[in-house]
Structure formats: structure tokens, C-alpha cells
Amino acid sequence: MKLIPLLKPIVVFVITLSTTLLFVLLFPQNKNPSFEGAVSDLHSMSVSRSFILWLHGLGDSGPANEPIRTLFNSSEFRNTKWSFPSAPNAPVTCNYGHVMPSWFDIHEIPLTADSPKDESSLLKAVQNVHATIDKEIAAGTNPNNVFICGFSQGGALTLASVLLYPKTLGGGAIFSGWVPFNSSAIIEQITPEAKRTPILWSHGMVDRTVLFEAGQAGPPFLEKLGVSCEFKAYPGLAHSISNEELRHLESWIKARLQSSS
């Protein structure tokens, strides 16, 4: 995320993708382009269309996160459509009302498991995510091949969007996020189909922006709902995304992609 210079000190989210981009440079050489290319083309024909929506964190932008897609080199992703939308500009309470890219309002930082939640603005953001998913499914993508991923504020929005979508999706991946709602009125909207969407939750153990305790509160919350969640803790990782997390995300999604055969 981006720091905004103000006269008052501000605590905001910080996203660090520089370490992940080192992996982009490590492309293996193709020793036999014509033969291997033909094999890849044949394989891609058996892989259904898939869709990955990436939701950035507070103060960030969609285009700044697009290099993430270059890390997914497996042939299973040849028919994958990626989307990196940018959040609208809005005043953010934890930033003294300063206007910045934000999916919904955040009242305090650091975020804990008990931080106040702005469910009204959250639900408006969820509606926009659902419209994107609906459009992709209408274009022919199997819901089981739709994956929503997000970092920090985008991770919280990912969780809400997946749980409140009426169909079973391929999965939701949350990085350094938190549970952004707790009202029974919202929880009652979660359908049995949505509860079958698997969740991957990754969190750095030395995160000082979204505290590790906020991440740890996620799996018990999901367990009570009957939602499957894989939680991975990363020692030494602060409020950022690592190569290791993204490599695991690639294999996690790849294992869940539905073939067209």
C-alpha cells in the first residue's frame, strides 16, 4: 500500500511485492520450442477456461499487482483470464478521512480480531465483486473455475465476497486479511452452496498492520460455518506477500481447476 504524506502521522497498510517479482526473471529456456509448444497447445485444449480475480489492498491499485500473473507458469493456466481491478477513491477513517483507493471503510489500524467493522460499505463492495463474477460466469466460465484472491483489505473483501456468493466457486484465497463482518443478519445470508467453496488463508506471523491474531480468528469462524479452510502461517513475514505464498497459491488453484474432459 502507499503512504500518504500528511501533517499528522498516519498508519496505513504497506504492500511489498519486490521480493515476489524476483521470481519473474527465472523463466526456464525452451530447448525445443516447436515440439514443446505443440504439446502445450494440445494440453491447453483439455483445460477449461478459468478466471482469477485479484483484489489489492488499501491505497494500492490493480495494475501494480499485475506482475503476479507472470508467476503462474503451469500449462493449466493457459486458458486463465485474470482481472486486477482498482478500488474507487474514498475517504478512509483510519487515515483521518483522507481520500485514497479503498474497497470499504476501515476504522482503525492496526487491525485486531475485535476491530470495528463497517459492514455497510463492505456489502456495497461485495455487490461489485459479485457483478464481476456473474459477468464471467455468463461468458461461459464454470463457477468451479472461478477463484477470488486478495491481499489485506482485498483479502477481507475476498472472504466476504466468496461467502456471500450464492454458488460454489473454485476457491477464495486470503493473504493477510481478516473477517470483516460479524452480524447475524449477514451470516444468515451464507448459502449451503457458498459453504462448499474452499478457502486458503495465509498470514505473516510478524504482521503489525493486520495482526496475526486477526488472521488466526479466521479458521475458527469458518469452522463454525462449516467452511473448509487451509490456514498457513509464515514465520518472519510482515505485512507483505512472499514468493512462497504465491507458489503455494499456484499449486492450490491448479489442484482445484476443473478439466473440460
Q: What does this protein structure show overall?
A:
By secondary structure, the chain is an alpha/beta fold. The protein is built from eight helices and eight strands. α3 (about 120-140) packs across α4 (about 155-165). It is globular and about 45 Å long. The model is unreliable at about 1-30 and about 35-45 (pLDDT under 50).
Quickly list its features.
261 residues, alpha/beta, 6-stranded parallel sheet, two-stranded antiparallel ribbon, 30% helix, AB_hydrolase_fold, transmembrane helix
Give the oligomer, counting copies of the same chain as homo and different chains as hetero.
single chain
Q: What is the mean predicted local confidence, pLDDT?
A: 87
Euclidean distance between termini CA atoms: 41 Å
The chain-level structural class is alpha/beta
The largest sheet has its strands arranged as 2-1-5-6-7-8
Bin the helical content. 25-40%
Shape: globular
**Biggest sheet record:** 6 strands, parallel
Name the beta content range. 15-25%
Radius of gyration: 18 Å
Q: Name the poorly predicted regions.
A: 1-31, 33-44
Total of DSSP H or I helical runs spanning 4+ residues: 8
Strand-and-helix sequence, N→C?
HHEEEEHEHEHEHHEH
GO molecular function, one term: palmitoyl-(protein) hydrolase activity
Keywords: Fatty acid metabolism, Hydrolase, Lipid metabolism, Membrane, Transmembrane, Transmembrane helix
Organism: Crotalaria pallida
Pfam family, one: Abhydrolase_2
